[in-house]
Amino acid sequence: MTHTQTVLSKTQLTTLQTDMAQLGRQRGVRFIVLADFSGQDISAWDAAGSSDTATISALAAGDLLATLELGRMLGGRRACNLVVQEHDDQTVLIARVGQGFLLLLATAKDVPLGWSRLAIKRLADRIELVVGDVANTPPPAAITEDFEQQFQNQLNRIW
Amino acid sequence: MFINWGLGEINLKIVYYGPALSGKTSNLQYIYARTPPHLRGRLVSLKTQQERTLLFDFLQLEMGKINNLKPKFKLYTVPGQAYYAASRRLILQGTDGVVFVADSQAGRSNENLESWYTMEQHLIELGYDIRTFPIIVQFNKRDLPHAMPTRDLRRLLHIAPERQCYEASAVSGLGVFDTLKAAMTAVVGQVRKSA
After folding, report:
1. Which has the closest alpha carbon to B182: B82, B100, B116, B88?
2. What is the DSSP letter of B178?
3. Does the pTM exceed 0.80?
4. CATH number, domain at A79?
5. Alpha-carbon distance A82 to nearest alpha carbon in chain B (angstroms)
6. How far apart are CA B95 and CA B164, in angstroms?
7. ipTM rounded to 2 decimals
8. Looking at the partner chain, which of B5, B87, B94 has a beta carbon nearest the beta carbon of A36?
9. For chain A, how many structural domains are there in total?
């Protein structure tokens, strides 16, 4: 296993956002987020527009990874594909996308679970086609010597 | 690391690792309290009823744009207790740097040593080259009696001379931001080197 670095192009991100917005327009869909297993949020659709995407992604990654580990410790493989959470007022599904990503879908309680399962599966499949090749992509030269210097100056101004 | 070219963001992950009660959560609490609200998210702590970290603490910090790229740092702590080894490994996944928080008290040598070795083991299993991977060491609880001399702590953990170490007292804030800034700088430097 190598240290993976996720780099998505604007085109890939636009495609992801379009696909997620399409599902988001369905009745009862409240929130969708795509994140990687390290907890980095990649793209989100939010009906309320006020959800803390970064924190939700970190928690979802922790949840799915803990579930994967649970399966392994119970003698299976680390291969859980879907976590379903039935809350009092909503349903939350977390699906594995490929080997390094997760998709979280939150719906209203009255949305049939069967529909949600199918919807998240289909979206995960579409997303996998878009992000499938990004694992192990070497980072582009986004950070230069000048960036480092400016970053250092900024740190010293903040703290 | 995740670069979002659409939004012009570079997302980086730093994990605070160390033995139980060494002060990892205290570091994040101090950072949260002393960082301007517009630069930080909420501090999320998943705790047991005994106020011990169960899965992780999480805090996002956001810098201003540099060359059209906004750095965002996600800070995590791991649960320190020995029986949460699986959780610690999970949280280290995808990290760009580690702050190892050692407890300076003389009676905690074994815990420091065990935690250091499990950290190295996890990082190696996850595919990192620990000779070059950014690991910043913080000798915490310097304010307490019976704190070991830092040279003895370095010797105990076999810390290479070139590795950066900081003395700290996370409760009072001494050394907390020196450690954080060193970790952030090391992570950014590492990303540049690997490009």
Report:
1. B100
2. H
3. yes
4. 3.30.450.30
5. 18
6. 18
7. 0.78
8. B94
9. 1
